[in-house]
């Protein structure tokens, strides 16, 4: 019984089990009154060795004074009027093992606490593995969701992501601008140098957009050579025109592909949420698209703003395929 306490007839401690001695952490309280070292919390009213002897066989709740350790146990009379108490940790077993660095050697071979410890260790190992798998699944899900919203060629958002971002921005109620960009002469790059050259050009355009916009802006490739940019918090036409002009200047920089140079430009149509009583995603995309082709009709590499009082929708088919 590694957690026993032996008492003589006067209630003085005559022996202490080795595990219990570890918890006392100091000189063993031999020849010291049991009730000075321990407090019997339940049953209530045990204040002397006589009342303890009267409750022999009853389940006891005992505290180690000054230590906070709580035990459960039984008191059994011995020859000569003494008492033998056999204590255990009860439901505090796991905390006690951690707190006092106990091992199976600190428990009796027949004590079911050892089996309980093994079960707890197994449970902890299983729970740890389940948490790891759950985090891995969450990470895989987040990665899959991110990939589903990303254009694989340029790394920008894709059309699906834009279809989510634009209504969400409208719902916030903030002013914003919508910029629709179409590349000029991109078809000639594909026709003359092949689609590999076109891919290089598209990635260069994505880089140019990233340079001239903010981290809070949404950049999306929505078609072969079409891009949409959402600019929250921007409604000043002068500033927006400056941003659009810088983008065009960046896009017009020569792009090297193998042993040749690719040259393109960009046309940009813009609309602003403040032009609408209640911004609508489809309407704004359509208006920016009309402004874009007005820019193409004006000679390409141009910027045009949607103007509600001017009909910009009359655009020829050849311009829409340029």
Q: Portion of residues in helices?
A: 40-55%
Shape estimate: rod-shaped
CATH class designation of the largest domain: Alpha Beta
What is the count of helical runs? 11
How do the SSEs run, as a string of H and E? EEHHEHEEEHHHEHHEEHEEEHEH
Structural class assignment: alpha+beta
Radius of gyration: 40 Å
Topology-level CATH name of the largest domain: Alpha-Beta Plaits
User: What is the averaged pLDDT score?
Assistant: 87
First-residue to last-residue Cα separation: 92 Å
Identify low-pLDDT runs.
312-322
CATH superfamily of the largest domain: Reverse transcriptase/Diguanylate cyclase domain
CATH architecture of the largest domain: 2-Layer Sandwich
Strand order of the largest sheet: 2-1-6-5-4-3
Proportion of β residues?
A: 15-25%
Largest sheet: 6 strands, antiparallel
Number of domains: 3
Please tell me about this protein's structure.
- This protein has 322 residues and is α+β, with helices and mostly antiparallel strands.
- The protein contains eleven helices and 13 strands.
- It has three domains: 4-109, Haem NO binding associated domain (Beta-Lactamase), CATH 3.30.450.260; 112-148; 159-320, Reverse transcriptase/Diguanylate cyclase domain (Alpha-Beta Plaits).
- It is rod-shaped, with a radius of gyration of 40 Å.
- Mean pLDDT is 87; it is low at 312-322.
- Helix 8 packs antiparallel against helix 9.
- The termini are far apart.
- The strands form three sheets. It has a six-stranded antiparallel sheet with strand order 2-1-6-5-4-3. A five-stranded mixed sheet has the order 8-9-7-12-13, sandwiched between helices. Strands 10-11 form a two-stranded antiparallel sheet.
- Strand 8 and strand 9 form a beta hairpin.
């Amino acid at each position: 019984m590694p957690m026993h306490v032996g008492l003589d007839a006067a209630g003085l401690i005559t022996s202490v089990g080795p595990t219990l001695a570890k918890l006392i952490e100091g000189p063993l309280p031999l020849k010291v009154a049991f009730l000075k070292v321990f407090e019997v919390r339940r049953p209530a009213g045990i204040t002397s060795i006589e009342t303890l002897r009267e409750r022999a066989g009853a389940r006891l709740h005992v505290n180690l004074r000054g230590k906070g350790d709580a035990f459960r146990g039984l008191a059994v009379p011995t020859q000569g009027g003494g008492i033998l108490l056999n204590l255990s940790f009860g439901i505090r077993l796991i905390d006690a093992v951690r707190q006092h660095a106990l091992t199976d050697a600190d428990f009796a071979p027949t004590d079911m606490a050892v089996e309980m410890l093994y079960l707890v260790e197994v449970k902890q190992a299983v729970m740890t593995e389940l948490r790891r798998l759950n985090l891995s699944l969450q990470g895989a899900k987040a990665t899959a969701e991110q990939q589903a919203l990303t254009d694989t060629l340029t790394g920008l958002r894709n059309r699906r992501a834009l279809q989510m971002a634009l209504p969400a921005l409208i719902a916030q109620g903030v002013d914003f601008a919508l910029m629709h960009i179409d590349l000029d002469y991109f078809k000639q790059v594909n026709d003359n140098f092949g689609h590999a050259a076109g891919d290089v050009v598209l990635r260069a355009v994505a880089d140019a957009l990233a340079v001239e916009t903010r981290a809070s802006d949404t950049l999306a490739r929505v078609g072969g050579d079409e891009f949409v940019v959402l600019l929250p918090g921007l409604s000043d036409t002068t500033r927006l025109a400056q941003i659009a002009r810088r983008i065009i200047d960046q896009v017009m920089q020569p792009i090297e592909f193998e042993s040749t140079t690719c040259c393109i430009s960009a046309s940009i149509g813009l609309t602003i949420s403040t032009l609408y009583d209640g911004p609508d995603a489809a309407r704004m995309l359509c208006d920016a698209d009309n402004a874009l082709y007005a820019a193409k009709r004006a000679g390409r590499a141009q910027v045009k703003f949607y103007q509600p009082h001017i009909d910009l929708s009359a655009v020829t088919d050849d311009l829409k395929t340029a």
